[in-house]
Fold:
Amino acid sequence: MQSYYVTTPIYYVNDEPHLGHVYTTVAADVLARHQRLYGLDAFFLTGVDEHGQKVQQAAEARGIAPIELADQVVERYRALWPKLSISHDDFIRTSSERHQQAVQEMWRRIDASGSMYKGFYEDWYCVPCETYWKETQIKEAGCWDDEQTKHLCPDCKRPVERVQEESYFFRLGDYQQALLDHIAKNPDFIAPVSRRNEVVRFVEGGLHDLSVSRTTFSWGVPVPGDDKHVVYVWIDALTNYLTGLGFPDKDVSQYWPADVHLIGKDILRFHAVYWPCMLMAAGIPLPRRVFAHGWWTVEGEKMSKSRGNALAPDDLMARYGVDPLRYFLLREVPFGQDGDFSHDALKQRYNSELANDLGNMLNRSLSMLQKYRDGIIRHTGVEMSGDRALIANVEAMQREVHEHLQQQAFHLALERINEVVRHGNRYVEDNAPWALARQGDDERLDTVLYHLVEMLRLVTLELTPFMPEKAAAMLEQLMNASVSVDGLRMHELGGWGLLTDGHQCARPEPVFPRMDE
Structure:
């Protein structure tokens, strides 16, 4: 069976789960569900990053051990994902024994390649970003003030610290040309295109040796053979993508290389520069794709606790429901661009596309079937050009949705589904089943009702990865039976005409009631 491997970043345990975490994880869930629907053996990995100086400092401030802090915070993520219908196959914790073994083996392989050496690091370090900065980089970014002792991180604009310590270094520059060659030969390796161009410019500017161990804190994976050092957080964190597959004890080739790492744009450099170079040094194939999505603002403003506009996932789910939230996040903006979360926009999108178009289509079709045929469909086999046009549109939609999701173009996939729904609503108006019933044109009425129900069935199948709960509710009405969307497969159910003559549909119940304006 063909496999598919999708990952989210591992989320930092210093963070409360927020909209950004939900966005990435829902996107990965849709990809995994879609691939399973199409018969692939999909593996979906997520988890948390528990190591590093930030976590140790936060734990010390509370008077507890770092693992105690991690244990408390990790439960927020474990509790959240089932509420959002997240179908992950594994949940990584970097404090686990299996992950420590994977990181140490990764270190040994990089070291065996001759790409490590011990030296002395003296420069600047941003604790919140876990990023080293050269003085020249800080000055070039305009974050340097000769009259101030607090110089700023070019990324987060928070103060950087002067670090002087013994360190192991990774010869990152040795892989500069190899990385550029790989990007040139594999144009889909980094997406979207704007991010690929950003990475190419960065690499062409020159890669410098990278400090990959620390001695000033202890909360991390010990360096093999030198436990005075702990492994720098990015080697530690990035190796999780292999840990989840059983590295180094198991053969990971069933799923590796990963089909796509989904990440936020703020950690692009680590995934598209450091990670592939480390993999080259370790002799491990590179992931097929790294996709960096954008950030969300709220009503036009940056999300932050200080502004009081941080969106808690539990509050959003309570207000709008799980599936409308999942739908909106992937429908509203192209994946890869920044987006603005607006409560009015969510309501408008929901009412227009889900309540008015899709929900109304389902309700009116099943209502007419109940009124005119007691809920029973008849397959006459007699088709007119309008019927064939609807079938052709549905079949083209199935192909194109799959193509869009292979490129992580979620908004285009949903728009293509919506095109078919709008076509279905026009089909109702063009054929006017109520008029056919008055005229006694039973054969044509049966044909129209059959095409409506079959179109709705296939549209709903395509929506199951995006809205598993709502799709299940729709299918249960169409199929008149309890449905588990996790077991559905397109090769069994995706063909037009699978509903048999005499099939009984359930009475309609509203699936998408309108939201108050």
About this structure: The chain has 19 helices and 16 strands.
